[in-house]
Structures are given as C-alpha cells and as structure tokens.
C-alpha cells in the first residue's frame, strides 16, 4: 500500500499530479480551479515554493490581488533572488495602484535578470 501524507489519504504522487493539473488549468484560463488544486498541495507541503509561486500566479490571474501579493512575498522570503517573483509582485502592486513598491520590485527583477521585459518595466534602457 502506498504511503500517504497527512490525513488527506493522498500520496506524494497525487500531489505532483495535482500540481501539473493546476498548471494546465492556469494555462487554460481557469485560475480558480488551479487555486483549489494547489490549496491541497500546499496544505500538505507548505514549504513547496513552486506550488506557492503557481498559486500566486493563479491568484493574480483571477484578480485576487491581496492573496497574490502575500504568496509572491512568501516566495521572495524563501528565494530573494527570484527575478520572476519580483516582477510578478511588481505587477501585482501596479494593479493595486501602488507605484512605489512596484517600481522597487521591477528594478530588483531587472537587476537580477536582464530580461528585456523586466528592463522595460523598470524603465531601464535595453
């Protein structure tokens, strides 16, 4: 019998399947469905940064900006050099009409990764 994790009765393999399905749901423009799947994964694996980053993206895509901000911030606490998380957090602040923190994170993203999109958002010359 496979080992289960926690009281959910689900196996670690099931959580991987849920994560992959959440990626597909987000790509198919069903961010709320993705969040539901990821909630279960994160309940059992709260340290999983990839799942938290995907859930942050899903929150952002469904215009749940405060939860997106919290998730992106948590990812950055664990991975302060994650340029994408800085960029996405900046976009979240931008949508909340908070230009000062947005500018800071756009610049951090551009400093960490000279991606043209990050440089343009930070208003650096490409």
UniProtKB/TrEMBL annotation:
Keywords: Repeat, TPR repeat. It comes from the Bacteria. Gene3D superfamilies: Tetratricopeptide repeat domain. InterPro entries: TPR-like_helical_dom_sf, TPR_2, TPR_rpt. It holds the Pfam family TPR_19. This is Tetratricopeptide repeat protein. The lineage of its organism: Bacteria, Bacillati, Actinomycetota, Actinomycetes, Kitasatosporales.
């Amino acid at each position: 019998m496979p080992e289960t994790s926690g009281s959910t009765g689900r196996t670690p393999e099931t959580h991987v399947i849920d994560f992959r399905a959440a990626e597909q749901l987000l790509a198919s423009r069903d961010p709320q469905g993705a969040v539901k799947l990821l909630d279960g994964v994160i309940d059992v694996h709260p340290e999983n940064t990839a799942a938290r980053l995907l859930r942050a993206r899903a929150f952002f895509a469904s215009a749940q900006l405060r939860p997106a901000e919290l998730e992106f911030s948590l990812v950055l606490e664990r991975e302060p050099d994650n340029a994408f998380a800085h960029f996405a957090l900046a976009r979240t602040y931008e949508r909340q009409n908070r230009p000062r923190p947005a500018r800071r994170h756009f610049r951090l993203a551009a400093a960490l990764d000279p991606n043209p999109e990050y440089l343009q958002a930070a208003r650096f010359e490409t």
